């Protein structure tokens, strides 16, 4: 079985577990994910998302550019420092 065949047959639950392991840095049972495991998981998740037409806004690494652009156009910046007066 090739890597591509394996990913095509990947169960959605396994995909979600791999995605969660990447996000949290640990497996569902609490064991830490090594850097090598994280790299392999990331490759599998990206390949799965591309092969199974997961919407772009639900993919690993998605950045919502619309929100960033709205702030740049003059909306209040929620990350600005708080000024404390005496």
How would you describe this structure in keywords?
mainly alpha; 4 helices; 51% helix; extended
Summarize the structure.
The protein has 86 residues and is an all-alpha fold.
Describe the protein's architecture and organization:
With 86 residues, this protein is an all-alpha fold. The protein has one domain. It is 51% helix and 0% strand. The protein has 4 helices and no strands. Helix 2 packs across helix 3. The model has no long low-confidence stretch (mean pLDDT 83).
Number of domains: 1
Low-pLDDT stretches are: none
User: Structural class from helices and strands?
Assistant: mainly alpha
Order of helices and strands: HHHH
Please estimate the helix content.
40-55%
Helix count from the secondary structure assignment:
4
Query: How would you characterize the largest beta sheet?
Result: none
Radius of gyration, whole Å: 19 Å
Which range does the strand content fall in?
A: under 5%
Termini separation: 69 Å
- Report mean pLDDT, rounded to a whole number: 83
Q: Please tally the β strands and state the result.
A: 0
Quick one: overall form? extended
Topology:
Layout: H1 3-8, H2 12-24, H3 35-51, H4 65-72
Helix pairs in contact: 2-3
């Amino acid at each position: 079985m090739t890597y591509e065949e394996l990913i095509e047959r990947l169960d959605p639950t396994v995909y979600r577990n791999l995605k969660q392991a990447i996000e949290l840095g640990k497996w569902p049972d609490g064991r830490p994910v090594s850097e090598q495991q994280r790299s392999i998981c990331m490759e599998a998740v990206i390949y799965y998302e591309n092969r199974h037409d997961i919407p772009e806004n639900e993919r690993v690494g998605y950045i919502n550019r619309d929100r960033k652009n709205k702030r740049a156009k003059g909306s209040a910046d929620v990350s600005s420092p708080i000024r404390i007066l005496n």
